[in-house]
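EI: anyone free to look at a 336-residue chain?
SC: sure, send it
EI:
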Amino acid sequence: MSSSQYQPKSPEGVNLARRQMTNVLAMIGAGALGSPLLLQLAAAVEPSDEIGDENDTRMVAAIFFESYATVALQRALRYAGNDGFVASMPQLLHARVNASFDNIIWNTWFTSNSEESVVTTAQGNHVVVTVHGGGIFASPSRVERSLRADLHRTNPGGLTGQYAAKISETEAGNLLRGLLPDGSDIPVYPFEEFRRGIDDLPIRYAVILDFETAKTAENGYANFDVLIDDPNLIIRAGGVEALAAYLDKARDRNKTELMGSWHPYDRIDPDQAQTRLLRLTGNKGGKGSEGDDPALGWGYDADYGIGSSGFIGLARYVAVAPRNVSTSLQHLDFET
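SC: here you go
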């Protein structure tokens, strides 16, 4: 089925067209912050002339940070509700492109609502399936099931030695067909078709890339002129044009020459079906963005680019949802 025929569902079941949300995402971080935990969007669903109008409903983004990933995702989904969404990697990158460098969207790291799964096709080929907008682990309960499983290496559930979540043969097979555990049926694009460009991409979709291609792609710091053709980054960014826009903005931040692009495919067993989350790093001022400051290490304080990770540790999601700002103090004028 074509993407124009498909009406994507959010993890909560609401239909959302990607084009309808573009203006919203373009404004993430464009306004001044009232607190480090809120990003105000300037795009209004039904804008009014002054704060206090009961119809003054705007799309507002909030950050949900927790030391336990399941709780962060639960809170983000609750905030998004039926009319919003939890931001995927392409959406986070799009927000950065349209925000100033002093915005929090650039100055800390984020967990995206995107995931990469290594699975084996019916023909025996290993592939990487990337899902944006919520995939197998769109549900906190599915995340929790992996985290609480017996971690013995013979257990078909639980986590791998690199802390990726093991997935079942049924989940892997359904994923290749675009069938997700929450009942959603999403479009699945081969990489070459995706590289050529898809008109009206939905918010929620999948892309299949040959494992060997993903494995031999850049893994580490590389020049921007090289990264623009990187297959993993093309998929992670949401397409060739989206990647080019982000790389241009990232290069201008500190006039850097390199950016990090990371993957685990040269050190895993592809026969084990497994899933990782995509993460976007960042820190104040972009320090260490070329890997030239060893003191920053590889932790949450380092801006080492874009990569994937397991399910252990901290999580920071962004959720976007309509809110009636007439009931909030945030936009009132207190100056006399």
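EI: The chain is about 25% helix and 25% strand.
SC: 👍
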